[in-house]
């Protein structure tokens, strides 16, 4: 009887440690997702900035494109937490184009019907406002010396977010696949 109690005690302890470990992992993933979202916004602002583009041209091969924007979107897409899914929805507020937009669409399409509920209940005004808040913070902190990009250049309007949402809902409903 005593042995059974000891085994039960250690299994309970191990279970609690495992649960706490999962909780820590989720919290760490959420931090990575939040960091990646900021990286995406920073890289978009740098790509849109004429002064940053000029500085990169003068820098030569040492300032080549890093791919950080696409990598940030992919990192968010790989997170299977609620924060990861919500952040994918929030990225719809950014004026991503080219490879960044393709990566975002692919990450959403890869989740398929799992994310369609979030797309249907998405509040475009909230996404647009989140983008404005994120962009303002990035422009004040990380890009304080870059003055030739505005929040409006980085963020979509609620109407644009709603249009993008509609296109993605159609794509998910038709089981569209990511092109790469």
Mean pLDDT: 86
Q: Which structural class do the helices and strands define?
A: mainly alpha
- What share of the residues does DSSP label as strand, in percent? under 5%
* Shape verdict: globular
Low-confidence spans: pLDDT under 50, at least 5 residues?
1-22
* Quantity of strands, as a count: 0
Q: Tell me the distance between the termini.
A: 59 Å
Largest sheet: none
Distinct helical segment count: 9
Element string (H = helix, E = strand): HHHHHHHHH
The domain count comes to 1
* Rg from alpha-carbon coordinates: 20 Å
The percent of residues in helical segments reads: over 70%
Give a summary of the structure in a few sentences.
With 180 residues, the protein is mainly alpha-helical.
Write the layout of secondary structure elements.
Elements: H1 2-48, H2 50-59, H3 68-78, H4 82-91, H5 98-111, H6 113-121, H7 124-140, H8 151-154, H9 158-173
Helix pairs in contact: 1-3, 1-4, 1-7, 3-4, 3-5, 6-9, 7-9
């Amino acid at each position: 009887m005593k042995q059974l109690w000891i085994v039960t005690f250690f299994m309970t302890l191990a279970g609690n440690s495992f649960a706490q470990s999962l909780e820590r992992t989720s919290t760490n993933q959420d931090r990575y997702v939040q960091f990646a979202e900021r990286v995406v916004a920073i890289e978009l602002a740098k790509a849109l900035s004429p002064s940053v583009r000029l500085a990169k041209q003068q820098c030569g091969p040492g300032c080549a494109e890093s791919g950080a924007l696409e990598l940030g979107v992919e990192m968010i897409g790989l997170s299977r937490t609620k924060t990861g899914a919500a952040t994918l929805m929030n990225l719809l507020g950014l004026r991503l184009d080219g490879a960044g937009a393709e990566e975002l669409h692919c990450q959403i399409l890869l989740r398929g019907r799992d994310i369609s509920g979030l797309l249907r209940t998405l509040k475009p005004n909230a996404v647009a406002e989140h983008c404005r808040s994120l962009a303002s913070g990035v422009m004040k902190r990380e890009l304080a010396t870059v003055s030739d990009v505005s929040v409006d250049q980085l963020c979509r309007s609620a109407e644009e977010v709603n249009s993008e949402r509609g296109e993605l809902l159609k794509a998910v409903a038709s089981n569209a696949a990511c092109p790469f």
